Amino acid sequence: MWYWSPREEIIYLPCIYRNTGTLKPDYLATVDVDPRSPSFCQVIHRLPMPNLRDELHHSGWNTCSSCFGDASKKRNRLILPSLISSRVYVVDVGTEPRAPQIHKMVEPVDLFWKCGLANPHTSHCLGSGQIMISCLGDPSGNGKGGFILLDGETFEVIGNWEQPGESAPFGYDFWYQPQHNVMISTEWGAPQALGDGFNPAHVKKGHYGQCLHVWDWTTHKRLQTIDLGEEGAIPLEVRFLHDPSAPEGYVGCALQGTVFRFYKTPKGDWAAEKVIGVPSKKVEGWMLPEMPSLITDILISLDDRFLYFSNWLHGDIRQYDIKDRRNPRLVGQVFLGGSFVSDGPVKVLEDPENQPQPPPRIIKGRRVHGGPQMLQLSLDGRRLYVTTSLYSAWDKQFYPDMIKEGSVMMQIDVNSDSGGLSLNENFLVDFGKEPDGPVLAHEMRYPGGDCTSDIWL
Length: 457
Hints:
Elements: E1 10-16, E2 27-32, E3 43-48, E4 60-61, E5 77-81, E6 88-92, E7 101-106, H1 108-115, E8 118-125, E9 131-137, E10 147-150, E11 157-160, E12 174-177, E13 182-185, H2 191-194, H3 200-204, E14 211-216, E15 222-227, E16 235-240, E17 248-253, E18 258-264, E19 270-277, E20 281-284, E21 290-291, E22 295-300, E23 306-311, E24 316-321, E25 329-335, E26 347-350, E27 362-363, E28 366-367, E29 375-377, E30 383-387, H4 392-398, H5 400-405, E31 408-414, E32 421-423, E33 429-430, E34 440-441
Antiparallel strand pairs: 1-2, 1-34, 2-3, 4-5, 5-6, 6-7, 8-9, 9-10, 10-11, 12-13, 13-14, 14-15, 16-17, 17-18, 18-19, 20-21, 20-26, 22-23, 23-24, 24-25, 27-28, 29-30, 30-31, 31-32, 31-33
GO cellular component, one term: membrane
Subcellular location: Nucleus; Cytoplasm, Cytosol; Membrane
Pfam family, one: SBP56
């Protein structure tokens, strides 16, 4: 598998100016992560988009492991959906990997008129050579979980993946597993509710999701809706195990700080059970009397031994041994900022885990504002990269200092044998020092693929 590949040397990540007060286009940054390089920990290239306020977010590939063995396919295009503008950029990373260029732009009107969808989020390549992108809503900002298909050569919008009338109430992430003829999708919320920040009242009004959707991979019909209940509110990143024969995976649920395992039952349908819960802390000096951990990203190591997730509000990353799939065991934890650092305005009154309020995290003289958010693991499982921006409107609401100072990218050293996490004090990419001012850096991709983009057949 991919963890036999050479060490990563560069990382691509989108940088966002929306909601920062700087009227500049978002851009794709190329960061040097080769410790032998003179430009180590530096942004070595910036590719600005031709429009303003796109909110670049997640990215995917034109070709991945589902096309393995097809010599005509090359992983040379990065697919960059824009969460707010609904544009999709196709970036050429093959001609000059260290200096990507825009190859094509898909305009929002194509998504609106051809698919009735907007707010594209997750992009995955398919074994057919096509590209599939999940969407959060319809062109009016209502929740609508559907999927657009792009031609893998021309990148023209083909139409919807789902059958007419089969879209889900909300959309967000998805992962497919052809050996079990299944695709699982998750729910964030209605774009018009989450667009300018988080209002807890919108959860009670039903503007946020709490369900997993099970799709027939062959017929594109929605077979099941698994309601995770209040404990599973706002299920975000979904990951099958990498073993293509494994009929199970995990989903991180933000609002209550839980992780659910989903699995195929002996009857052949699908079910889910809660396997991890991070308790909320009773606090004062914050917007609510209880602060959830807010699990915002999860990933599984390529050997399917460890599960990692970030608690964006509490400020820690956790590593679990998942050899016993139903009983994950905590084996590593590290705090990297968060909302209740010891010198901040928030005081913890009651913590079921009895953890002290952590000191602020300072790396190379730079204080980390915000909390750990997007994660990417090296192919050998020994280095975990992390950025701090979630989504510009929520960054502005929960971590205004990050808007002023910019986000950062950090690296965690991982014990991939028995477990354990420790911060690499010599690694920091400071996006507060960008040429056009502080910026919000988000999801990370290696040119050769990684454990959150590759699906094996």
